[in-house]
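Appendix B, record 7
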Amino acid sequence: MLLAVFLSVSVHAEELTTQPVAWSSASEAMQKGEDLENNRKWSDAIQLYEEALKAFSSDKSLKYGLRRARIHHSLDRRYADLSFQSMLMEAGSTSLLNMYEDVYRNIHREYLETVSLTRYTAHGTESLYMALRNPVFLQKNLPAADQLQPQIAKVRQTLIESYWNRPVSGLSDARNVIASVCELCREQLNLSRNAVILEYVFGGCNTLDEYSILLTPDRYRELHGTIQGEMVGLGIEMKAEAGRGMHLLNVLLGSPAEEGGLRPDDFITEINGTDCLNLSTDDAAKLLRGTAGSRVRLTWQTPDQEKRAGEFVRRRVDIRSITRHAILDQQRGIGYIRMEGFQEDTVQELDTALRALEAEGMQALVLDLRGNPGGLLDTAAAVAERFIDSGVVVTTRGRNANQNQVYRVNGAYTRPYPLALIVDEDSASASEIIAGAVRDHNRGVIVGRPTYGKWSVQTIVRMPGEREMALRLTTAKFYSPDDRNYSGVGLQPDVLVPESAQNRTTFFRTRTSDEINADPDVAEAISALQRRLTSN
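Structure tokens (predicted):
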């Protein structure tokens, strides 16, 4: 099992496009949210509900709207997943029921909170109830749904009247409940057993927190590749923007995409001749996936509205944690390192960058963790040891004794020079471990904006069988050296810098040192270090 501390929620952060709005009332926000749901803009609806709940935290309609949008978003993603369709929809129903039991056993054993079988099964019932109104689910499983609306309504009503929160005494009883629902759906709708069972398998996980999920084979491989720092593909991060195509948020160093001329802020408009101006992120990703050595032809538009096209060969891409290091102030020896993840090779990459900067005369360091979603817990502790000479850097506490750990450092690799840490609202988990340790050990100045506020640990639990699936479960919370947990609120910087359009961190690898210095966050960090060096 792997212990990970990273931001990986059910909704892709890169898909969210709705800007925060000051709502005059909860009902106004609810109406806007329902409009987004009616247009199947689940990601935007989720963000809207989350923002509205900050102002109207007790509103039950907004809470249910958020829950509903998350379930529909998960359904859409699941049915866009090729491994879900090919490996799970085509599996035997008995093996899927066995999977249902295996998933629950792991949740019961590992999850941070106790989850009853009644609660887990009830959320499966709710997921099926929602699925019977989901266009993607219906298109796949009930192509004649338009002619079956009375029967669908009857099944949904029966789910509420006979199965909603129905007590379940054990796994055999749960199987009987699911079998009964399967028979109901077969008689009324001719809906396949697999479609029903899979809603109980995956939908049951809706009872968990937003960071816990059952990973399909493809999602598990993606996660494993991220942790190991490698992937097969083009090496891009993108989001869909209706009418414009796939907005490139990042292009990985040394990737086929970078070598072929793609850059952040470009928009992919066609994939192998297929117009993708209005595709979802997941649908476009399906077109972009392929085996190593296969080719894909893209058409894209640059920020200057120049239209370009090219052919790319998919291959293995190493995902680097350190994407830029440089001396920004030659006179005072102020170095800069941009870190984008906490992977297996991160510490080695960091040590290499530190040695290179030290060889150039570095006397102080700006460590940029903006947009860094986290990664491996052990890696976070090892990174902290590069800057903190002794003591506790993080503590974890969970329901099980094996989740209660204290991570200490002994100074074997510590650098003593002044440190400025840059964080923002997308610095999460492992990034927050570093920020918390720097704050509590009074090791440096923290610049930027409040961090994300995800102070929990996920364990990756491999599922039995040959399908290469896994559960990502929240199993513990973590605490700073002074025993603080900033879950839901984030850690406040010492120097608050308003967000600016100039904060384009993905561009830093191609910018000059002067251009990086002009970034408001970096400028504040350098000023803080200059004051420290001058006072010394």
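Remarks on this record: The radius of gyration is 24 Å. Confidence is low (pLDDT under 50) at residues 8-19.
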